[in-house]
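Project channel, design review

CF: Before we commit to the Leptospira fletcheri constructs, I'd like one complete example in the thread so the newer folks can see what an input/output pair looks like. Taking STAS domain protein.
RD: sounds good, go ahead.
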Amino acid sequence: MKELIVNLEGKLDLQLGAAFREKIGQVLSSEPYKILLDASGIGDWELGALDLIREAATSHSESKFAVCNLVQGLGEEWKLSGLAKEIPTFSSREDAKSFLNRESDAKETASPGFVACPICFQTLRVQGKGNYRCPACSHTFYLTADYRTASFEKLF
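CF: and here is what came back for STAS domain protein:
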């Protein structure tokens, strides 16, 4: 799952909310993302814009959203509007990133599967994404979350 950080700045009004919904819709139409909204730059907001953000999140349920750095008044309205159920709030960027990674890591490592070694085509049993070494030819490769192999190791 790809990751995207959106820095919201200025006034969160209907125009910005509609632009956000449109752009996120274009991005999420091809594949799911983990989206972190950083609201530290928002000075003023309209309630209607919150509804547009909710629409963007609920229309792409396979993607995961989180928001951080809400100013106090916006944080209260975020919770009162019920938006916190769709997009959880966090006090820092690190906390939000941790939440998004924890959610996706649990899904990516939940079920074992099978993959062919990219060199000798030996069938291997794997448990999610990560580095693997083929027991038949000793080739080391990386397996992505969507079970594609890459002929290199990932260092982190």
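RD: helpful, thanks. Residues 106-111 have pLDDT under 50 and may be disordered.
CF: Strands lie at 2-12, 33-45, 64-68, 89-90, 113-116, 123-126, 130-133, 140-143, 149-150.
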